[in-house]
């Protein structure tokens, strides 16, 4: 005879992903149901940051690794600050180092941007680390035309 627990109808549980937009959630579900643990490259490129956060939150290491690789490969002076901030929660050394290197390489462009002013206000400790790294560079003057550091 079956116990009363087995006879009762299964309970449906609802999981809310309030931090994700609809398209981001679709990309996550697509990854979760993929046979080979992959995600279409366009979805990964478009949603790498939010999927990275979801992978951390829901402990999906393979997705986190895919997102990390995408974030590192697409680093530039326009997204380096956001990526640097993302690498802190929790700390991801590979992502942190790649973003920090990009920031140091593009500091003259980044330091004059509105994004940097906002970043300084919300991340004072990280901002100090960026400025310290720039100030202790042995050759911190770079030619704006060719990119070569000058003494």
How would you sum up this structure in a few lines?
The chain is mostly helical and 151 residues long. The chain is built from 9 helices and 2 strands; from the N terminus they run αααααααααββ.
Give structural notes.
This protein has one domain (17-150): Potassium Channel Kv1.1, Chain A (2-Layer Sandwich), CATH 3.30.710. A hairpin with a 6-residue loop joins strand 1 (141-142) and strand 2 (149-150). The N and C termini lie far apart (86 Å). It has helices at residues 4-7, 22-32, 41-57, 61-73, 80-86, 93-105, 107-111, 114-122, 124-136; strands at residues 141-142, 149-150. It has a two-stranded antiparallel sheet. By secondary structure, it is mostly helical. The chain is built from nine helices and two strands; from the N terminus they run αααααααααββ. The model has no long low-confidence stretch (mean pLDDT 88).
